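lol ok so funny story. i was supposed to be doing the assay writeup but got distracted and ended up predicting the structure for this chain instead. priorities right. anyway since i did it might as well share w the group, maybe its usefull for someone
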Amino acid sequence: MGDFPIAAVLLARDSAATIERAIASVLPIAQQIVVLDTGSQDDTPSRCLRLGAEVYFARWEGDFAAARNEALRYVRMPWVLMLDSDEELDEPSFRAHAKVLAQAEGVGGIELLIRSVPGPEQRMPWIQVHRAVRLFRYAEGIRYRGRVHEQIRPALEERGWQILPLDICIWHYGYSGELVRQKGQRNAELLRAELQHAPEDVWLQYQLGLAEFAAGNAEAAYTLLSRVLEHPQLSPEQQLWARLRLAQAALSLGRVEEVLQVLHAPFAEAELEGMRLFVRAAALLQQNRFQEALQVLSHPLLEQCPYIDQQQLRHFRQQLERYCSP
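and the output, tada:
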């Protein structure tokens, strides 16, 4: 097993296609690997056992927090690294920051960098980049909350511990186009059930809006995100994503003027600003404002944006340049 007093914890169900890569990525790091299987029909458990993981079983109850908390029962290490079965820990970035685990007095959680990509062979273009608390101190009472998009941060903060952002990277490979829709549909169903118990919860409305967008339900996404747009309970980054997804939903519904209105002001975050410009250009194209669209698409920030297919961007530019040339 690995070099650090960490338990890597994974949930799995019919994960034979990806679980070995996930476990292999933490073998040099973690001194304990816990896999909670929630009902596999394939050989996921035996694959995990062959790699040295401890495999436990639980019935799936439609509650991610409950499943993760069940897995935590088997942890024997002072730190937990929570990993999904379609993810891979980037070992060099972990080792570059590993000394913090021994020195971080008062720190209870580490915010890692999650980079979602189409597949293990291709690391561009990224579909999404975000931070999440995936490494945290294991202690009595530190438990996840939330049926979906479950969170450990509230429990850590209530204990008085700090959350430290570090550039430790996890690669997430679960976002091919069809999987995005399937996960969006699954998450939307779980979030709708949770929202029934807390209909005014801004964070749940925001997450459901994102899930509905991923599932292709533009009208539902538009309605939900309109309610929480720029709400102070959302972080600045979440507010920007709410604007982007609202605008994309409006674009798919043909509400072009609303897209231009929502995306009128620039974003301070450079990567998201590139995405804002790209969506705004798409709206201008729908209004046949070709010269303006070409000007927007020529902005250098679009070439630096990890959310944009660069091949598609070049194609759009070439087509518009031919159309707009005298």
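The CA atoms of residues 251 and 259 lie 6 Å apart. Confidence is low (pLDDT under 50) at residues 119-126.
back to the writeup now i swear
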